[in-house]
Amino acid sequence: MAPTKFDRLSEAEPGERFRIEKLDIEGTMKRRLLDLGFVPGCEVTVLQKSPLGDPTAYKVSNTTIALRIEESSNIYGERIRDDNE
């Protein structure tokens, strides 16, 4: 079976939903992201990007969290598509 290519959370656009598959980061930053709710299987909604594009606000576990590109580019998963799209 061919490996699945995951998207980076940083590539998702405002309004899109994203399901986390893995975090490719180690140490205290990984622990921080896990504590904030960025865990595999969790659904994240991209809320909005700042005017300059960094950071971006995400809704995870009923909380709004802003992440910079260097953090969100290490979170991999898949975009959740509605059936009517």
TrEMBL record:
SMART domains attached to this UniProt entry: FeoA
**Entry keyword Flavoprotein:** no
Q: Where is the Ferrous iron transporter FeoA-like domain?
A: 7-79
What's a Pfam family in this record? Answer: FeoA
What Gene3D superfamilies does the entry give? 2.30.30.90
- Which keywords, in A-to-Z order, does the entry hold? Iron
Q: Name one GO molecular function term.
A: transition metal ion binding
Protein origin, superkingdom: Bacteria
Please name the InterPro entries in this protein's record: Fe-transptr_FeoA-like, FeoA, FeoA_core_dom, Transcriptional_repressor_C
- What is the name attached to this protein's record? Ferrous iron transport protein A
Q: Which organism is it from?
A: Thermaerobacillus caldiproteolyticus
